[in-house]
């Protein structure tokens, strides 16, 4: 019997969504925002920012790791964002 082959489709950068989970007054969040904004502009990915102080579920999940970067809803990194690693993740 031939094994079933699964076709996986890699998303284009323009179809990817980066979410920065941050909080007001956080200098690491400011640094992460600059990296996310730059890399997303280069790769064509969209990005959004969510304030952890306004979302109880995010607060419970990530309060010790701020800032947190999610790519397509999955945690990519926290505290410091490596632009090269994010770029690779987004396919850029």
TrEMBL record:
<dbReference type="Pfam" id="PF05768">
    <property type="entry name" value="Glrx-like"/>
</dbReference>
<protein>
    <submittedName>
        <fullName>Glutaredoxin family protein</fullName>
    </submittedName>
</protein>
<dbReference type="InterPro" id="IPR008554">
    <property type="entry name" value="Glutaredoxin-like"/>
</dbReference>
<dbReference type="InterPro" id="IPR052565">
    <property type="entry name" value="Glutaredoxin-like_YDR286C"/>
</dbReference>
<dbReference type="InterPro" id="IPR036249">
    <property type="entry name" value="Thioredoxin-like_sf"/>
</dbReference>
């Amino acid at each position: 019997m031939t094994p079933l082959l699964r076709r996986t489709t890699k998303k284009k950068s323009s179809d990817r969504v980066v979410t920065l989970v941050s909080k007001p007054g956080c200098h690491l969040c400011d640094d992460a925002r600059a990296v996310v904004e730059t890399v997303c502009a280069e790769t064509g990915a969209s990005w959004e920012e969510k304030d952890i102080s306004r979302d109880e579920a995010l607060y419970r999940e990530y309060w010790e790791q701020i800032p947190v970067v999610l790519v397509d809803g999955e945690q990519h990194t926290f505290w410091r964002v490596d632009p090269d690693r994010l770029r690779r993740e987004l396919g850029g």
